[in-house]
Design goal:
Protein name: Acetyltransferase
CATH class of one domain: Alpha Beta
Mean pLDDT: 95
Order of helices and strands: EHHEEEHEHEE
Number of strands: 7
CATH architecture of one domain: 3-Layer(aba) Sandwich
Keywords: Acyltransferase, Transferase
Structural class: alpha+beta
Pfam families: Acetyltransf_7
Radius of gyration: 14 Å
GO molecular function: acyltransferase activity, transferring groups other than amino-acyl groups
InterPro entries: Acyl_CoA_acyltransferase, GNAT_dom
């Protein structure tokens, strides 16, 4: 079931983000990751349009939208490969239509997912806080 984010989800979603982040972003520094974890709780989750995916009434993933941009898509790694990330993006597409997302070039998990979904690279730049290459991807839906 996909439902709207509630503030009581915050701790569970930060834990999901942390576990998924270790899989997708092992190249990020501990200092940067600690700051993002704090910002997830204080800034990102409260200010985005966030949708939570539940299994057995427990959050297992989420998608955070800022207008038509995917600000974050994270799934408990235990549930990777079960088309649940696709279900979250499908939900976002129904709500918003065309979407965009930024993903680190070294994020093999995310890049494979977005490539298979049909996102295409439209730009790339150096993400200054990490000095990593970030790709801007777009999905165009009618």
């Amino acid at each position: 079931m996909i439902r709207k984010y509630e503030t009581t989800d915050t701790t569970a979603l930060v834990e999901i983000w942390s576990a998924a982040n270790k899989v997708a972003h092992p190249f990020l520094s501990d200092v940067f990751v600690a700051q993002v974890a704090k910002d997830m709780r204080d800034i990102y989750l409260p200010n985005a349009e966030t949708w939570v995916l539940e299994f057995d009434q427990k959050p297992i993933g989420f998608i955070a939208l800022i207008n038509t941009e995917i600000g974050g898509l994270f799934l408990d790694p235990e549930f990777h490969g079960k088309r649940l990330g696709k279900a979250l993006v499908d939900h976002a597409v129904k709500l918003k239509g065309s979407l965009s997302v930024e993903v680190f070039e070294k994020n093999k998990v995310g890049r494979r997912f977005y490539d298979l979904y049909g996102f295409v690279e439209v730009d790339r730049y150096c993400h200054e806080p990490t000095n990593e290459i970030s790709l801007k991807l777009t999905l165009v839906k009618d």
